Task: inverse folding
């Protein structure tokens, strides 16, 4: 951790006055990283890359976008047709939102599998959840900006959720809208906030990386770095590994941008917003579907609390619950690699979120995967129940009851062992 | 590396399978059969002659009721017309302009920079002339419906003379197999010989429908060819770059047990 000596006079001059170069050297060059990280550890830096991409493309889109209900849709079409490579910038931004969520979801599942939320990484984990929440708000407001049918009706449905709260509900919604329906003031404020939020996310990312660098990366064994042999400097080992991962990811990203740019979107958003015509199915973007399914699955009242309020609370709880999992998980072992029972529950949980996503995309009265008698709403309810049971029942109980496999003495030992078996 | 490839493929598969649901969730009408369009696939391009025939169909049939407000005459360069042809096409239209120095609106022949004029002055007028239904703008039609080109083609060719027995068809409506709810305000717009093609292509209903869908797909995605052409270059570049990055990664990591 000793400060490096700079030979270049200019570098030294600057660094003596503001040690920014030393800081970068410390955190992007010599940062000791476990040597056994798998490719599952690539998605954090990928998410960071997508964030920067979104900010840059967004800045250029704003140069040509008009946040007014009469002109928003047309200005987007002008970007698509008349701005040089405007279609490219917009398609990158549009698909970039999906790519961001893909990276972040994989990143979160990785954290769940390898116990990256456990001590001493709780604060790191919390900041990550805050980033997810900020991303969701940003994505939602961004989707409203083109002012298509799904923009308008999505905004109407989601903002209306706040009316579920007793007493303050209705005034709150009016306050959010800036009027008595989703209209021009709503579009304007969403535009303003959509421009602000990415920089809030950027700030949170700085804190996230800061926290990471003080507690160090977790790794597939879940065993902390103990000796210098367990770690390698971040550069060049992980810079090159991240770059290779970025190349693969960009191929995937570009396949959507250039060959299926509208695949992840909804066709209704190419119809200009019309407050007088409600689309037959209002469906959020794919990354919100599991949460939407949880919201809709509560169609009953408990103790006189109306279903709508319960649904809203359940939806928020589905993310807020992540804050307390460092204490819900009672296992002493971090990595699921050494947790023969929990490992299966983890995968069951992954499948459960996919089922929730499917339910969110379908009408409640449809049949689940066409299975006669099994309504989507029922399947959504069961999956919602399981979602919460995973955190509230499985995590505390399995942690206590499970017989974990013996942990390797160190990262180096596990690496050598695996090398011998290969 | 093997593990990495498997993970990547599984992730890509899961994402596409999963997200596909979202797009297909809306709409209850029968699924339109998939057609073999020239612009499909990695190398798909538009057929200029077909686009021009489709434009002829739009101009002579659809334009009576449907606007095309995102398309300017100058854009027709994209379907293979030259500058003089575009000027001639634009000049066929009367465009309202003004106010002039006396404060009056006036009409003048169209110029390439003008947009296609709408057939009705406003939505109320459009609804009044069409039994209460507003003919939608067609600029983005093939992007604004699930499986857009297939759907529009199926719709245009999916009219039935008589509604099935027991179906309660309102006055002034037509029965269409593919329209959600089957009851559509648009009377069958196309029929054999609706337009006489200048290039000698047989003027069947199906041909008209196919051509106008091609034209409308171009109005919805005029960037399609440029997009795919650039996409191929970008992806080829990325494949080479990624392969090299992998080689460098192997070299850097060769002495590390991991």
Result:
């Amino acid at each position: 951790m000793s400060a490096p000596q700079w030979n270049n006079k200019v570098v030294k001059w600057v660094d003596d006055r503001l040690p920014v170069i030393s800081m970068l050297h410390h955190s992007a060059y010599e940062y000791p990283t476990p040597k056994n990280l798998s490719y599952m550890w690539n998605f954090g830096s990928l998410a960071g890359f997508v964030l920067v991409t979104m900010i840059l493309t967004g800045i250029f889109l704003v140069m040509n976008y008009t946040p007014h209900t009469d002109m928003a849709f047309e200005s987007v079409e002008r970007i698509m047709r008349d701005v040089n490579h405007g279609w490219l910038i917009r398609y990158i931004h549009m698909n970039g939102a999906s790519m961001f969520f893909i990276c972040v979801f994989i990143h979160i599942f990785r954290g769940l599998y390898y116990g990256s939320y456990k001590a001493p990484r709780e604060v790191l984990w919390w900041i990550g959840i805050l980033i997810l929440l900020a991303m969701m708000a940003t994505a939602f407001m961004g989707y409203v900006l083109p002012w298509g049918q799904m923009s308008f009706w999505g905004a109407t449905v989601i903002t209306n959720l706040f009316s579920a709260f007793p007493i303050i509900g209705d005034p709150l919604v009016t306050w959010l809208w800036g009027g008595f329906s989703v209209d021009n003031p709503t579009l304007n404020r969403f535009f303003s906030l959509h421009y602000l939020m990415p920089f809030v996310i950027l700030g949170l990312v700085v804190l996230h990386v800061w926290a990471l660098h003080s507690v160090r990366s977790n790794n597939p064994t879940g065993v902390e770095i103990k000796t210098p042999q367990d770690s390698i400097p971040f550069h060049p080992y992980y810079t090159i590994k991240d770059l290779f991962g970025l190349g693969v990811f960009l191929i995937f990203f570009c396949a959507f941008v250039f060959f299926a740019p509208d695949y992840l979107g909804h066709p209704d958003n190419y119809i200009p917003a019309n407050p007088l015509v409600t689309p037959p199915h209002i469906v959020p973007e794919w990354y919100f579907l599991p949460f939407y399914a949880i919201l809709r699955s509560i169609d009953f009242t408990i103790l006189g609390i109306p279903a709508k309020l319960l649904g809203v609370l359940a939806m928020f709880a589905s993310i807020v619950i992540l804050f307390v999992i460092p204490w819900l998980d009672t296992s002493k072992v971090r990595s699921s690699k050494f947790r023969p029972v929990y490992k299966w529950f983890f995968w069951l949980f992954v499948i459960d979120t996919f089922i929730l996503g499917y339910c969110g995309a379908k009408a409640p009265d449809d049949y689940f995967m066409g299975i006669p008698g099994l309504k989507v709403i029922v399947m959504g309810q069961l999956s919602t129940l399981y979602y919460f049971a995973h955190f509230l029942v499985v995590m505390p109980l399995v942690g206590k009851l499970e017989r974990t496999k013996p942990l390797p003495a160190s990262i180096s030992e596990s690496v050598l062992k695996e090398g011998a078996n290969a | 590396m093997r593990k990495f490839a498997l993970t990547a493929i599984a992730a890509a598969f899961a994402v596409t399978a999963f997200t596909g649901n979202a797009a297909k969730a809306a709409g209850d009408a029968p699924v339109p059969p998939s057609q073999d369009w020239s612009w499909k696939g990695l190398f798909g391009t538009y057929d200029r002659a077909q686009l021009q025939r489709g434009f002829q169909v739009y101009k002579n049939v659809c334009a009576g009721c449907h606007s095309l407000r995102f398309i300017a005459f100058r854009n027709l360069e994209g379907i293979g017309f030259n500058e003089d042809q575009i000027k001639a096409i634009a000049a066929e239209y009367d465009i309202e302009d003004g106010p002039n120095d006396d404060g009056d609106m006036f009409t003048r022949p169209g110029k390439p920079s003008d947009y296609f004029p709408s057939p009705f002055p406003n939505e109320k007028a459009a609804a009044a002339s069409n039994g209460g239904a507003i003919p939608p703008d067609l600029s983005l039609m093939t992007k604004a419906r699930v499986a857009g080109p297939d759907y529009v083609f199926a719709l245009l060719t999916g009219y039935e003379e008589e509604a099935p027995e027991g179906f309660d068809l309102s006055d002034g409506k037509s029965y269409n197999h593919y329209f959600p709810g089957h009851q559509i305000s648009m009377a069958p717009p196309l029929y054999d010989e609706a337009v006489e093609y200048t290039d000698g292509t047989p003027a069947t209903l199906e041909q008209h429908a196919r051509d106008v869908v091609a034209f409308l797909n171009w109005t919805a995605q005029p960037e399609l060819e440029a997009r795919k052409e650039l996409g191929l270059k970008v992806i080829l570049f990325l494949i080479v770059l990624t392969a090299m990055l992998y080689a460098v990664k192997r070299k850097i990591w060769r002495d590390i047990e991991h």
User: Anything to note?
Assistant: Chain A has a mean pLDDT of 95. Chain A touches chain B through 60 residues (CB under 8 Å). DSSP finds 16 helices and two strands in chain A.
